Every structure is written in structure tokens, then in C-alpha cells.
User: What shape does this take?
Amino acid sequence: MTVAEEVVRRARSLGATIAVAESLTGGALASAIVDVPGASAVLRLGVVAYDTAMKASVLGVDAGMLAERGPVDAGVAAQMAAGVRALADVAGPATIGVSTTGVAGPEQQGGHAVGEVHVGIATTRGTRSVERALAGDRAAIRAATVEAALAELLVELDGIHRPSTDATGSEQEYEM
Assistant: This one.
């Protein structure tokens, strides 16, 4: 089973939904999820905001942060994930927003090395980002970023608990 298949399987079993915001991966993350049968039950929205200005105007990333830090930044990744999760709220909030930003190469960008990537995650518990230093050519870095984002989705899905009933019939905590 691929990581994408596991993400879709777990999300479906939990009733969780996912919204994706991509820069560096240019739609490859959403495509990896969509390639899995049953993805329509979990993928709520996919946005490719490749241009820095789009990160602010479409995803709501703080323009001051973008001007100060540039698009390759942990805070930007976290805000991208929160922004796409908010965009998906039209149909009810997505359980998880996930984003990708970074430098795939062939040259460094804004002082950031080729292979520096950030994966953002947003849920009801808050936002976070994970930085990775990846090696390889442009295609390898983009593919590894997709895998890193899928791995982070699994981490978040592991933190979601379905409602259950105890011996007295009382519903236990439901956390999404």
C-alpha cells in the first residue's frame, strides 16, 4: 500500500477531509491523493499558489511576512495550510489543511538552498510546519516533498479519534 493510499484509507475511516495548498509541488500532492480510488470522499480542495502574491491574495498569508521572509518559510507554510483549510469551509471545515513550499532548484532562491522545503499543517488544534532538507534534482525534491506531506498527513490522522461508546453507553471524546 502506498502512503497516499494509506492517507485516503485512514481519512475515510475517520470521516476526515483534507484541503491542499501547493507551491513547490505544483499540484503533485493533490494528484497523488486523487490517484487513489475513493479520494473524492476525503479531498475537499486543492489550490496551486505558485506565485508569491497568490499566497497572500488567495490563501490569506500575511503580506508583511511574505515581504520580510519570502515564500520559503515555516510560517508561510503554516499560514498556507490554515488558509486553504479556511477556503474549504464553504462546504464545512476541512479536517486538515496541508501545504508545501520550498526550493526545488535548479538554483537557490532568496538565500534558501535547493532542497529546503516546508510542509504546513492546520487543524482545529492549531498550525505547525515541518522543515526538510532534501537532496536530488528538481523532480526528486518535488517527489520527496509530496511524500513528506503525505507522511505529515498520516501523523495528523493518527491524532484523530472517532467517537466511541463506553460500557455505559456514553460517547467518548471526539477530536478533529
Notes: The radius of gyration is 16 Å. Residues 138-158 form the longest helix (21 residues).
